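Case 403 in the screening queue. Each case pairs one protein sequence with one candidate compound; here the compound is flavin-adenine dinucleotide. For every case the pipeline is the same: read the inputs, emit a complex structure as tokens, and attach any notable structural observations.

Predict complex for case 403.
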Amino acid sequence: MDSVIDPLPRAAQAQGPQGFDYLIVGAGFAGSVMAERLASQLGAKVLVVDKRPHLGGNAHDQHDDAGLLVHPYGPHIFHTNSAEIFDYLSQFTAWRPYQHRVLASVEGQLLPIPINLDTVNRLYGMHLSAPEMGRFLESVAERRETLATSEDVVVAKVGRDLYNKFFRGYTRKQWGLDPSELDASVTARVPTRTNRDDRYFEDSFQAMPAQGYTRLFERLLAHPNIHLMLQTDYREVAPLLPWRHMVYTGPIDAFFDHRHGRLPYRSLAFRHETLPQAQFQPVGTVNFPNDYAYTRVTEFKHLTGQQHAWTSVVYEYPRDEGAPYYPVPRAENAQLYRRYEAEAETLDQVTFVGRLATYRYYNMDQVVGQALATFRRLAKAHRSVMERPLALGAQGLRAAVMR
Ligand code: FAD
Ligand code: UDP
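Case 403 output:
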């Protein structure tokens, strides 16, 4: 892998007389997995550009001034049910087993979320058994013909009171929308349990990269055929360097200059604090559904297992403006996305992959899975890609953007 910031003349040199076979926009999970596969499996020459000064996209991690490993873009916990995805990433990192636990601050108590037997017993001062909790939930659940929205899916399972205390406020803060205005899939990410399992995720693989995400990305991109340019918008280099095919992992509406209107993304402001104490809170994350402008506080040492006399935490403040972090799952946005997707499908020389490029609320493992599947499709077309004249990429891009 080349040095962190690479000026255009060095890229021009690195491309050699043949140019780059693939220009990859974005060095997050989507772009890095695509680059690794294309270089290692097909021997392709790959240029990865990212406008940020670092690898990893939103999964980037780094040490703060006190030497604590933190996630500048909010807490990232790896979990998956796919052995294929876990094994693939295991080529590039060792793992530290970690099971994430979250408490919600509700009515002066810190209670387990996802809602479980202890949540209900402690909130209401009851002593229910697991079967009794099942019957209790049935008695409070609201009947719904269809589970269309994020409100439906919760009230149909746990009823109005638990919905109001754990979901309504958090969701309104996080998305700036009422749960009734969001797809069911958003709150459906959080299960309900009648047992005492207090893990946030139930996936069969739950672990953190032992030396952090950034190290994992360095290893993914450490192939001699991969050339990296950071702090570079692809629009600066795509018209200047010869390439055959582009893999784009940024926001899809930005690629098309928002010609059908802006796709809504939810953003966050992060407040990082380093504190002169060994521990700040009892678990990795504490959620604040009903108080404060922030949604949650995460203490990184729980996630990383780092031993240190001090600790670092991050507060997340949701907002509309700022870097696009979350696609907003609701019907009207899916409809607008489909207009961009239809245009994307007409472009033979550009492949769209990743959370922002396919406007899907995907976790890291899903993005890796999507990239591996996309690579398999692209590999079938590789021969015809290699037959394309090098200049075609830049011309195609101009045609796509200026249409
Ligand atoms: P990104 O990481 O966004 O990478 C896209 C890259 O493209 C960026 O680096 C960007 O700079 C670059 N780019 C965009 N436009 C251009 C341009 N014009 N020129 C050059 N470069 C460009 N997932 C989990 O599995 N577990 C978690 O605990 C978890 N927590 C999360 C917490 C937060 C606060 C957020 C926001 C996300 C979380 N995720 C989590 C989701 C995870 O971040 C994503 O699934 C994953 O990082 C997406 O990877 P990606 O490559 O698709 O996109
Ligand atoms: N959610 C909630 N209360 C909580 C936790 C989650 O209402 O205590 C809702 C909220 O709408 C959130 C969604 O469930 O955006 C998904 O939660 P998750 O923790 O998966 O969000 P992410 O980690 O992706 O921000």
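Case 403 observations:
- Residues 114-188 form one domain.
- The two ends are 36 Å apart (CA to CA).
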